[in-house]
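User: quick one, fold this
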Amino acid sequence: MPIAFSSSFFLSVVKGDLDISLILVLGEQLPPVLVSNGHKNGGRDIMLGGNVHNTCLTVIEPDANEEFTEDKEAYVASHFYINNVGDPFVESNYGVHLRQFEVAVFDWREVFPDGILYASRDSHYSVFKAARMYKMECMKVDTLVSGEIDSADFKVKLLANKDKPAIINVNIGTTVKGAVDDPEVVIKALEETRFTHDQFYIYCDGALFGLMMPFVKCALKVSFKKPIGSVSVYGHKWIGCPMPCGILMTRLEHINALSSNAEYLVSRDATIMENRNGHVPIFLWYTLNKKGYKRFQKEVHICLRNAHYLKNCLLAAGISAMLNENSDMVVFERPLDEKFVRRWQSACQGNITHIVVMPNVTIEKLDDFFDELVEKCSSWYQWENSSLLVLQERLGARIVFVPYITEF
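Assistant:
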């Protein structure tokens, strides 16, 4: 059987000192897809097996001795209208695309139409918003102090709804506390309540920490060797893509369940909106090439170290604080001055707030924040050099310490 590859692709863009050279690498032959959708397009069948992408661009590890790389703007990103329509792996009749970048970077509703969505109370609010939009029955599961899902309450709710499939949102880093729901704990709860693998679907929300976790050796591992259905991460958080974007990884069986052949595109479409931002893959590809594995690993470890530094400073000053294991989110008592909150762009929820320690947050910046916070606390609580116990008594048992130590 002959293998049909995409036409060769080479792009060199030069602007000042910017030189991006992209060379296609032939990939392995993909398995055959749907051969025809039964429609004609200009007198011919849409033969999707003949226009499958078997090529992608490589992500090249930068020089090991290259500590810093000058930031450069991708010229192509601002000079072309790029739309990756349809399926990432199947060509369409729209020629201005960058699927090669997309492949290089790589709804539960259809799986269980009558399923119940289970999500911890610390899950992102958009999870519950999506449930309302899809008119899904949703169960909020209690959480531990750390923000992790409470397996005992989860099992109680599963047993009360044993007659319906379970769709579980597993947090790989909650929005406020940075807590990670252990997939093994969730799977164990499902098995103990007699849910078979064909009765549940697990979605892992990786958002920010999903792209940090692989670089921390003692962190939980999320793998498709386990009975999970999909994993998503954001490209605009840790990687720093300049526009909001996400990457979803799922099993082929779920893609096929949602895919349809679009005669209009001469392609297959596995998305809701059909169109995908064609600039996103090139930004992600560019950053992966610019930094490489070792620099990402170094940045993750620096962020976790700096987060521990801030937590320890707060505790030493008598300010209630907590930091989950392998998290870069330092949680502490909500400041009483809204001007202070706005100045430091500190996201608040109820009586707590947090600081997310990202690569741009240096020790010097943390010191400036800490010094100002301590100064403000003196007026807010009318204390100076108060012991931790005294402050806790004044604030009440609203913040509990989680003194985890991250191993690098």
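User: anything notable?
Assistant: The two ends are 50 Å apart (CA to CA).
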